[in-house]
């Protein structure tokens, strides 16, 4: 007979390395959230807590410029983390990991609108150009005015 599948929460509680790995992952997520609360501004979006070992917190960022900005805030961060979360914290190490840039999610903005002024300039330009280019420019200017009317 086959064994029935075990619940994942039970597997995490069993002996072996899995419970300690799960506990460390949870600690790193908590530290990441706390560090991002202490460091404010756009810098907080550019960092990730990578590890905590032997009293050293390792923070990764995608570029050296962001690493420099984090390094400027390191004393404040170290002091606050020691007081609030990690009294055993002795140092913070900032590392550059360019592969983090792959995982950044940036919302792409659609720039498919033309201002009224730009449409007027395109229309004026189309008056002086003959052929298919002039016709296409006129349609572009007309499209800009139509999109404004539909809103």
From TrEMBL:
Pfam families: DciA. It comes from the Bacteria. InterPro entries: DciA-like (IPR007922). This is DUF721 domain-containing protein.
